[in-house]
Amino acid sequence: MDFSLLDKPVQFLKGVGPRRAEALRGMGLVTARDVLLHVPRRYDDASTVQSIAELEVGMDATVRGWVRTKGVIPTRAGLRIFQAVLEDDSGRITVAWPGQPWLDRKLREGDVLVVTGPVRFFHGRQIQPREFTLVGRGDDGESRDARQGTIFVAYPASEDVPQWVLRGVFDKNLDALLPLADAEEWLPDDERERLGLPRPSEAFSALHRPATLADADTGRRRLAFDELFFLQLVQAQVRHRQTRERPGISFERTNELIRPLHEALPFALTNAQAQVLREITADMTSSRRMNRLLQGDVGAGKTLVALFAMLLAAEDGWQSVLLAPTELLAEQHARKLRELTAELPVDVVLLTGRMGAAPRREALEAIRDGSARLVVGTHALLQDEVDYARLGLVVVDEQHRFGVRQRMVLAERDPPPDVLVMSATPIPRSLALTLYGDLDLSVLDELPPGRKPIRTSLRY
């Protein structure tokens, strides 16, 4: 089987000529593969469709029927209303689209529609749809009964490529495309069965011709698996290439700073903190550059973990930077780090935009000559005038409040410093960084004793 057949231009599919192919290309459907991957945006279960005879005023209904008659009705206020009489085997009902007279050119008598909206009384029962789907054309040569299905498929469509065109493309070509999809199967049979995934042909058949809504979910699951797997594969390749081309700093751990801090703490580290520290230490003492996301609730001890990492760098003569999104948070971090390192031979230097000229010059000089091994600040740390003597670790707090370019200003120095970014909430952007960025993930999934558990709720 020729693997390139799915990549043939869409105009060579049955029922698609040059003019229709141009419209399909406008939607991004350039090849047969694109058509196969054009996933429905919605499925309507026929079991939820009501007969017209049972509709009552006040109901919110979904009905399916064919257009018996249609036309545009003007009003005294100048509004033009498109109306159609929809009929099924049980009866008829008027469907009205105020202000949409153009539908008179799009819909034909005999067309099959699925209509959803409230039932009201205006010269008889009437539906004013908030949504409708053209299921089939009245002149497509099929009987009305032949178009009755269990699941109605609604695709992303356009004015130039309406639903009925897309349905026709799939009706004429899906059977021929399914074997081509199987020819490109990359999962071994035993692994696919272990994961409970369908073959590609079964997945696409379930997506475009589902017998039940559960079938459609199965098809989506296979496509989602493939997409996420190959995204992760690309990220693994990127990480491997970065490690090979830009190796990190191999820090030497002496414990001259870490051990005194650990012994001075009036509490024991949680199991989660200890595990995360092992992961960070393994990264920092290897030749592989650390690029890690630390996630944990407020109060889980992320700052303490970051301090241990900063001290590991300081033990080997490197500087560390803790970047905070606001001056208030930067000042809080600096105060906390000074308290924890009060008995240690390291200086914590704060640099923010609102500092006076004299303390600012003093901070810049300490950063320049390397006497400031622990540096805390805001965006001011990203300015060109800040000259680091030997930057080895960048810690970014509340990372979602910084742009990618802002974070990379420090991370792209030579030699490339290790990077630890922290977030208190698993917001989508954080998860996206794990997926699309080159970040490893560490999680503080327990709170220190005495801390109240964090509850997340949605209010609307």
What's the quick description here?
This protein is of the alpha/beta class.
Number of domains: 3
Helix and strand pattern: HHEEEEHEEEEHHHHHHEHEHEHEEHEHE
Fraction of residues in helix: 25-40%
Beta strands, count: 15
Task: Compute the CA-based radius of gyration.
Answer: 32 Å
Return the CATH topology of the largest domain.
Answer: Rossmann fold
Proportion of residues in extended strands: 15-25%
Q: What sort of overall outline do the alpha carbons produce when their principal axes are compared?
A: elongated
Structural class of the helix and strand makeup? alpha/beta
Indicate the mean pLDDT.
85
Please give the CATH class of the largest domain: Alpha Beta
Low-confidence stretches: 141-149
The main pleated sheet reads as: 7 strands, parallel
Description:
With 460 residues, the chain is an alpha/beta fold. The chain has three domains: 65 residues; 112 residues, OB fold (Dihydrolipoamide Acetyltransferase, E2P); 187 residues, P-loop containing nucleotide triphosphate hydrolases (Rossmann fold), CATH 3.40.50. Helix content is 36%, strand content 21%. Helix 13 links the parallel strand 13 and strand 14. Helix 6 crosses helix 7. It is elongated and about 90 Å long. 31% of the residues are buried. About 2% of the residues have low confidence.
